[in-house]
Amino acid sequence: MNTERNIAFDFVRVTEAAAIEAAHWLGKGDKHAADKAAVDAMRSRFNQVDFEGEIVIGEGDKDEAPMLYIGEKVGTGSGPKMDIAVDPLEGTTLVAKGQPNAISVLAAGPKGSLLKAPGTYMDQIAVGKAAKGVIDITAPVKKNVRDVAHALNKSVEDLTVVVLDRDRHKKLIEELRKVGCRIWLIDHGTVAGGLASAFSQSEVDMLMGVGGAPEGVITAVGVKCLGGDFQGVLKPHEQKYIDQAHDMGISDLEHVFTIDELANGDDLQFVATGVSTGPFLKGVLFGNGTATTHSVVMRKSTGTIRYITSLHNHGR
């Protein structure tokens, strides 16, 4: 019996539970209630999984988050020791506004495999398998776009780059427009955006820009499971995050983190369930006493990608 495979399916039940509870808040204008519902459901489900997990990427420090905080132990305590990175609801604002692309997501690997990133920002670049090895986050935007386009056998004009729509990206967006590529601006959801760049059937070819460092680690796991590539550089925006990075053993804040430094080894798993419909996962569909969920489960060791559609009967 393959323990890793069994745990992967147990993890699907974790993200499914979080997604269903968050989806009840779609469009109701309360992102905090949606996030709390997802966190509560995810934490409760973790308690039913036979493993010894530690949250390395979560809702924040213990004094900031009552559950799924960094360092919290999850699982029954019986089974393999694992690092867990979670975002119970990536896209709280998306759910509050009734917008697409919100997901519940977790990444997992053996103890010590996932980078413990500070809760600050990270400059990120992600691509799929065909462009692995050609990106360089320290190189000019023009070079990266042209190199990726060449690797994908596309013209620059047909290459699509997903970017978080923020003021801090004004210069990046201007440079991308000068290069002539297509740009997909998103309001939220860098994990989903990064994953979309690594799916060959997606409309997105590349992720660029500054997003959350914790989300960057989760994205790196998913991209690695898909055979893609990812690089990141920390961009701490407050002194406390600089101190936090140093406490975590990160002394060089200019260091370029490769995908293997963010997510080490091959025994990695990535699981996500759609909350509201996005580029690669449909959202939760409610029926008469039922909920239908759409999830993806990926394992790096086997290269397997499974899409799972589940019908949940609330009466049972």
Q: Write the CATH fold name of the largest domain.
A: Fructose-1,6-Bisphosphatase, Chain A, domain 1
Assign a percent range to the helix content: 25-40%
* Topology, number of strands: 14
Unreliable sequence segments: none
Helices, by number, come to: 9
Main beta sheet strand tally, sense and closure:
8 strands, mixed
Q: What integer is the average pLDDT?
A: 93
Oligomer category: single chain
CATH class of the largest domain: Alpha Beta
Q: Choose one word for the global shape.
A: globular
Strand content: 25-35%
Radius of gyration: 19 Å
Beginning-to-end CA distance, first to last residue:
28 Å
Structural class: alpha+beta
H/E element sequence: HHEEEHEEHEHEHEHEHEHEEEE
Number of domains in the coordinates? 2
The CATH superfamily of the largest domain bears the name: Fructose-1,6-Bisphosphatase, subunit A, domain 1
What does this protein structure show overall?
The protein is α+β, with helices and mostly antiparallel strands and 316 residues long. It folds into 2 domains: 3-114 and 267-313, 2-Layer Sandwich (Fructose-1,6-Bisphosphatase, Chain A, domain 1), CATH 3.30.540.10; 121-262, 3-Layer(aba) Sandwich (D-Maltodextrin-Binding Protein, domain 2), CATH 3.40.190.90. The chain contains 9 helices and 14 strands. The chain has helices at residues 3-23, 31-46, 92-96, 141-151, 170-179, 190-198, 213-225, 239-247, 259-262; strands spanning 52-57, 73-74, 81-90, 103-110, 121-127, 160-164, 182-186, 206-212, 229-235, 257-258, 269-274, 285-286, 290-299, 304-313. Strands 1, 2, 3, 4, 11, 12, 13 and 14 form an 8-stranded mixed beta sheet that branches. It has a 6-stranded mixed beta sheet with strand order 7-6-8-5-9-10, sandwiched between helices. A hairpin with a 4-residue loop joins strand 13 and strand 14. Helix 4 crosses helix 5 and helix 6 runs parallel beside helix 7. The model has no long low-confidence stretch (mean pLDDT 93).
